[in-house]
Amino acid sequence: MMIKAPYLLYLGSTADPMAIKTSRGIAMFRPEDAIGEFVREGGALSLGLPQMGFAEAAAAGARTLILGIANAGGTLSDELIDDCEAALDANLDIASGLHSRLRDEPRLVAAAKRNGRRLFDVRDVGSDLRVGNGLPRAGRRMLTVGTDCSVGKMVTTLHLERAMRARGIAADFRATGQTGILIAGSGVPLDAVIADFISGAIEQLSPAREDGGWDLIEGQGSLFHPSFAGVSTGLLHGAQPDAIVICHDPTRPHMRGLPHYPLPSLADTIEANLRVGRLTNPDVIAVGIALNTSSLEREEALALCRRTAEETGLPATDPVAFGVEEIIDRMEECFGESLQSNLRSA
User: Fold this and answer.
1) Cβ(22)–Cβ(66) under 8 Å?
2) Is pLDDT above 60 for 342?
3) CA 116 to CA 104: how far, in whole Å?
4) Do residues 145 and 218 make contact, with C-beta atoms less than 8 angstroms apart?
5) DSSP string covering 203-270, please?
6) For 146-196, how does the pLDDT look when each residue is reduced to its tens digit (9 = 90+)?
7) What percent of the chain has pLDDT over 70?
8) How would residue 73 be classed by pLDDT, with cut points 50, 70 and 90?
9) Rounded CA separation 252/203 (Å)
10) What DSSP element (H or E) covers 67?
11) For residue 12, what pLDDT band results from cuts at 50, 70 and 90?
12) What is the model's pLDDT at position 341?
C-alpha cells in the first residue's frame, strides 16, 4: 500500500484500552516508525509517546496519521472526520482500518485533493479472491485461536515469528486484521471478506511453501463469540493449521461486549478448535497456551502459567512478559524434523 512512515498514532478521546490496540500494536512492533501520538483534550489514554498536534507532527517528520482505534461498527464519527480533515490540511496522509471508508467521505476526499495527500483504506479487499477448496498443500502452518476476541492473538503470533527467526527457523507472519496488516505491510482484512471467500482468502494468504518453513497466521475472533464465530471458522478451515496456540485473558469476566455470555474454558476451547480444524487438516494439534497476564503481579502471573500448564498438559506463558520459547520447544518436539531442516538451511 506504500503507506509512508514515520507515523502519528491516533488515540483521540477514547477511554477503552482495547479500542486503541492498533496504535498499541504499531508502537510495540514498529517503534522506529511511531513518532508520536495524537490525544484529544480530555483523552484518558496514552502509549507513552510524545503527544503532538497535526502540524507539530508534520514538522517533526511524520508522513501519515494512522487511525489506530476501533469503535463499534468501525465507523467514521464526526469527531474523526474533523480530525482527519485537520490532519490532511497539515499535510499528513491518512491510513484507516475502520470499516467505514475514508474514500467515501466527501470532506476527506476534497481535503486530500486540495492538499495533494493520500487516503489509505486498509480494509480494502482485492478482487481476485477465490472460494476455498480444502486441498492439502505443502508447508507448515500455525494459527493462533482464542477464548474471545482481543486476547492477544496478533501479539502472540508476532512474538513467535521473532523468536523462531532468532533460532534460525524460517517463519513468516501472515496478517489477517488491520493492525497486523499495518505492521507487516501486507495481509488480508478477513472481517471485510464476503463469507463465501473467507477460507479461500486464507488459502491465498498462506499458499504452499516448499522451503520447510512455517507460516504463522494471525487468528481472528473466537469460535465461542456469537458475533464473530463465522470468521473464526472460515479461518480455521482455510489455514489448515498443523498447530494451534490458544490465547486467553484470564481476568476477563465475560465475552467482549456480551456480558450475558461467559468465557469458555480452555479445555472446551482446545477441543472445539481441534474439532473444527480437523475438517481440512486431520492431524492438527495444540502446542501451547498464551496468557495475557498484564494486569497481574509477576509472581501471580508465573503461578497462573504453571497451573495452566499442569491443567492442560501444554506449555503456558505470557508472550510479552515471559517469552514464547516453551511453545517453540513443544513445536520442536512435535515437528522436530521440519524445524531441524530449517535450522540446517538457515
Assistant:
1) yes
2) no
3) 17
4) no
5) HHHS----SS-EEEEPP-S-TT-TTTHHHHHHHHHHH--SEEEEEE-TT--SBTTBTTSPPPPHHHHH
6) 999 989 999 999 999 999 999 999 999 999 998 898 888 889 999 889 999
7) 96
8) low
9) 32
10) strand 64-67
11) confident
12) 44
Reading across the β-sheet that carries 243-248, which strands appear in turn? 171-174, 214-217, 140-146, 243-248, 285-291, 316-317
How many Cα atoms sit within 13 Å of 75 on the Cβ side?
A: 5
Phi/psi for 141 (5° steps) reads -135, 140
Q: For each of the domains in the chain, give its residue range(s) and CATH number, in order of start.
A: 7-121 (3.40.50.720), 140-345 (3.40.50.300)
Q: What is the CA radius of gyration of the chain?
A: 20
Residues in the chain: 346
Q: Which three cell numbers stand for residue 17?
A: 484500552
In Å, how far from its chain's centre is CA 222? Answer: 13
> d(Cα 269, Cα 284) in Å, to the nearest integer?
14
CA angle 78, 86, 187 (to 5 degrees): 75
Rounded average pLDDT over 83-98? 94
DSSP 191: G
For Cα atoms 278, 205, 165, give the angle at the middle one, nearest 5 degrees: 90
Q: Give per-residue pLDDT as tens, 272-291.
A: 999 999 999 999 999 999 99
Q: For the chain, first and last CA: distance in Å?
A: 30
Report the alpha-carbon distance of residue 316 to residue 324 in Å, rounded.
Answer: 9
The grid cell for 268 is 472446551
Which amino acid is present at 101?
R
User: What was the pLDDT predicted at 340?
Assistant: 46
Asked if residue 72 has pLDDT above 90, the reply is no
Residue 111's contacts (CB-CB under 8 Å, 6 or more residues apart) are 84, 85, 88, 89, 117
> Which candidate, 174, 164, 172, places its Cα nearest to that of 219?
174
Q: Is there a contact between 87 and 102 (Cβ–Cβ < 8 Å)?
A: no
- Please report where in the chains the cell 471458522 appears, as a residue: 233
Place of cell 492538499: 115
